[in-house]
Amino acid sequence: MKQYYDIKDKHPDAVLLFRVGDFYETFGEDAVKAAEILGITLTRRANGSASYVELAGFPHHALDTYLPKLVRAGQRVAICEQLEDPKMTKKIVKRGITELVTPGVSINDNILEHRENNFLASVHFDKKMAGVAFLDISTGEFLTAEGGFEYIDKLLNSFKPKEVLYQKGRGNEFSEHFGGKYYTYTMDEWVYNEDAANDRLLRHFETKSLKGFGVHDLNYGIIASGVILHYLDLTQHNQVQHITALSRIEEDKYVWLDRFTIRNLELFGVINDGAKTLAQVLDKTISPMGARMLKRWIALPLKEINAINERLSVVEYFANSENEKEELEMHLRHIGDLERIISKVAVGRINPREVIQLKNALNAIEPIKHYAEKVDHPVLNRFAEQLNPCTSIRDRIEKEVVNDPPMLLHKGNVIKSGISEELDELRKIQYSGKDYLNQMQERESARTGISSLKIAFNNVFGYYIEVRNTHKDKVPQEWIRKQTLVSAERYITEELKEYESKILGAEEKILALEARLFNDLVQALSEYIQAIQLNAVVIARMDCLLSFASSAQANNYRKPELNDTKVIEIKGGRHPVIEQQLPIGEEYISNDLLLDQDEQQVIIITGPNMAGKSALLRQTALIVLMAQMGSYVPADSASIGYVDKIFTRVGASDNISLGESTFMVEMNEAASILNNLSDRSLILLDELGRGTSTYDGISIAWSIVEYIHEQMQSKAKTLFATHYHELNEMEKSFSRVKNYNVSVKEVGNKVIFLRKLVRGGSNHSFGIHVARMAGMPPSVVKRADEILVQLEGDNRKDSLAKPLEGMAEKREGFQLSFFQMDDPVLKAIREEISALDINNLTPIEALNKLNEIKKLSGLK
């Protein structure tokens, strides 16, 4: 226990799994936590002079089952192993921490999501600027950036790190800038030193400067990156040669998507249950690397037209060559998670089965390389140049490792025959031992003339020769008597002892020799880490582009045209997610849309609830996003002058946990938009201002639209969906504001939603029709109709409160008049009376009912 507490003191905030023989044990508070999270038995035992200590443990071979549960429960787990063989020491076995597993630092397959990155993030912030770094230790990806707090917040929302590091004592500032939704860990202040961080990075990459990575001028980013490497040292992750580069996330290369936009457009997570994300609709990737890269492409759409058109040209090529595409997909299925397998080589955690998977992947890369070489497409030809099947190491794996090895090295039968004479000899001894002993028994029996002689084995003496007492006089002099029985004697010989040591030592020697040969192979593999990582990146890109081609074919998408104008023109646009979730047989109604900076900069869209205003806004943003990712789009045609920022203010939502009302959330999001406008921004505003009183809302909405219109430097393209029909008046005063509405058709007392965008404003919301469709009680709907007629009959220029006050006064005067039958109180009384079965009513029930009606009428 003293040894345990000494080790625990070094990692007080982690659950310590303490290896004792064949078990991992937890003690004290750790045992209480582990028992609760893992559902294992909590016991107590006497602890020397102390009274009792809590205890909970599990078999060492169950680590892969229990470790993920602890990490997913947000626990840091320190794994303490026995560092020497208990047979070789007479004292307490030496123990030490071999790994500290946290949510952001893990290479365990059972903890990692195969189709998602597992990023550890580090944030270093000052008063106005911040730096951020992201590392996925399971793939070796290491990225950094710096900028304003909003930019860093956007990156954190895009990369979704599993753990974030920041400086001790700055928790309030971190929450204020980036929210409280991340699993965080604080680091000592002295680590946040530029010289120390720079030095740590240079030592890791073994370079003289960071200029080669293009990050040398990112002071805050360098500090954040250095802190990550320091954290790897703290958590005992020392084998990190697969982290071969530090990449810069260049702000000017990617479209700005703030956290509101990522949430509102439902790119990765849904707001309502049962919905689908854009990532789910577009993800038809085959490999885990492709799936991870696709999420990155969605989070970081491009601004460079040439880079976008390169992607689109490959998608077009794949979409037009169906047979070749299918053949490529077949080869991709054999590749698996090449990126994470080669990372396991670096950390020395690769198992024999994964080595064979690596060989299969390298085999599959060869035909992909040949295909990309021979096609007439410059981008694919470039991919072919970057692909390297690493034939020498692939052939070595083929030669040395059996085709279907066990997952665990110590199970044996990993290395093929013919690789090591010593190994073959040992295997021969192991497998032919019985035959040799039988031959020896026959030979000695013939030589001595003892027909009943037999060779046997027990745990005390090992192998021995047993001779019945009747043949005792025939025993050769060189045999050594070992045991006397009632009717027989047992002997050993030099030959038998020699062979015994060979047989008994063979299995142990075989395992040790196989381990050495396998580790030599892994060591040779580690020289190919960079080449295989490049293979993984190229394969992931091809996988993403194939996925875009598959989506285009399956969902009838068209190739967009990207240009550097400031015009967005979409013909027959559809919402990529909603159209997937329509009932069978129902078609999505497409719409045309034009936004520019000369004639139609701001479109105000009115129309009834449920007509499709919000869908139209979102689909416009998603079509632009998909185009700038390099994907085909759900439209008949799309000509898009690239955008650099997409802002959305969609829907109403309280942030109760932070004490923010719906209106406060709206205003925060709107403020973020107005403070970051550019001349290539696309802005989507949906129902802005409805979190406050009607006239406050109209005033704010009007002034925001006016501000966007009058910003001559930016002229941001804007779609504004609203119920405030008063905003239609803006078209008369502002030249680039245009009114549109989503049309409906009234048939009798019903409304048919046509979902078509047409020119002109609308002055009717049809909210009462929607209430009827939702199943509102008929009396409520009827009464709402009556109030609406009265409101519309009054002077609309007066305050809305006046007609309502007048109605209240009128109702007051006739409250007890049975001739004012539309009074709600009298209606309730009438419904009570009409529901009575008078023929079967007893006198006491009649009196009770009369008393209820009296109460309804307000009489005492």
Descriptive notes:
This protein has 860 residues and is of the alpha/beta class. Among the domains are: 2-101, 3-Layer(aba) Sandwich (MutS, DNA mismatch repair protein, domain I); 120-249, MutS, connector domain (Nucleotidyltransferase, domain 5, 2-Layer Sandwich), CATH 3.30.420; 421-501, MutS, DNA mismatch repair protein, Chain A, domain 3 (Orthogonal Bundle); 561-773, Rossmann fold (3-Layer(aba) Sandwich), CATH 3.40.50.300; 814-860, no CATH class. The protein contains 28 helices and 27 strands. The strands form 5 sheets. Strands 13-23-24-25-21-26-27 form a 7-stranded mixed sheet, sandwiched between helices. Strands 3-4-2-1-5-6 form a 6-stranded mixed sheet, with helices on both faces. A 6-stranded mixed sheet has the order 11-10-7-8-9-12, with helices on both faces. Strand 16 (480-484) and strand 17 form a beta hairpin. Helix 11 (305-319) packs across helix 19 (529-555), helix 14 (352-374) packs antiparallel against helix 15 (378-386) and helix 14 packs antiparallel against helix 16. Mean pLDDT is 85; it is low at 795-819.
